[in-house]
Design goal:
29 residues; 59% helix
Length: 29
């Protein structure tokens, strides 16, 4: 939804790894 760039994806994946709901909302993979 809001983390479109690949670099931001990688960063927020690690930074928000604890928030599975947010990850599922932010990523389509």
């Amino acid at each position: 939804i809001f983390f479109k760039s690949q670099q931001n994806n990688n960063f927020f994946r690690l930074y928000l790894c604890k928030d599975k709901n947010l990850l599922k909302g932010a990523y389509n993979d």
